[in-house]
């Protein structure tokens, strides 16, 4: 007998959990999951080893393993038509820093800034407080280099509600 209560709970869980970050330059989620064969070639091709087999068997990027260098090898390795032109923006991810950032506890830390090549993270002195990080979303490429280095795992990159900007 089907347990409707459990099924509805599982559905609600799927709806509320964050959408995975797929590969750079990837097409819309529904098109991707319809066309990806789950062959794993992109996982083998990634020189940074940041692509994992996620829920449902589809590949996803895990920035806690490292950063994306935008080397394009995952796209080149894939035999399916699942990507936008490499001339376009690889992806548009929402970046956020949680309150668990240790600067909120008056501890000096600027590790994320040191890891950010595009210099999208700056530290601002505030009266009575140690410097706190601020991110220029316009300068953030979504490389994820700041994620793994944070001692509090306070930085998150997630799929933008605005979708991917392929201008
Ligand atoms: S672009 Fe390169 S570093 Fe980034 S996910 Fe693809 S293979 Fe990995
Ligand atoms: S190489 Fe392409 S088809 Fe194969 S798992 Fe990766 S995205 Fe899917
Ligand atoms: S994800 Fe953005 S803020 Fe973090 S290191 Fe990369 S460019 Fe900088």
Automatic annotation (TrEMBL):
[4Fe-4S] cluster 1 binds at residues 36, 39, 42, 46. One of its GO terms (cellular component) is cytoplasm. Keywords: 4Fe-4S, Cytoplasm, Iron, Iron-sulfur, Metal-binding, Repeat. Its cofactor is [4Fe-4S] cluster. Interacts with the cytoplasmic NapA precursor. Belongs to the NapF family. This is Ferredoxin-type protein NapF. The gene is napF.
């Amino acid at each position: 007998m089907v347990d409707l209560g459990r099924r509805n709970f599982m559905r609600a869980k799927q709806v509320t959990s964050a959408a995975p970050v797929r590969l750079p330059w990837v097409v819309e989620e529904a098109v991707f999951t319809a066309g990806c064969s789950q062959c794993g070639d992109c996982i083998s091709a990634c020189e940074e080893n940041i692509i994992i087999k996620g829920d449902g068997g589809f590949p996803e990027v895990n920035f806690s393993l490292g950063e994306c260098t935008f080397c394009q090898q995952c796209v080149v390795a894939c035999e399916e038509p699942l990507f936008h032109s490499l001339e376009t923006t690889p992806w548009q991810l929402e970046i956020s820093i949680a309150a668990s950032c240790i600067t909120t506890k008056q501890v000096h830390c600027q590790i994320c800034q040191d890891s950010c090549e595009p210099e999208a993270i700056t530290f601002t002195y505030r009266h009575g407080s140690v410097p706190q990080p601020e991110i220029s979303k316009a300068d953030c490429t979504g490389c994820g280099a700041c994620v793994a280095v944070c001692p509090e795992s306070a930085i998150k990159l997630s799929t933008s509600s605005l979708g991917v900007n392929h201008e």
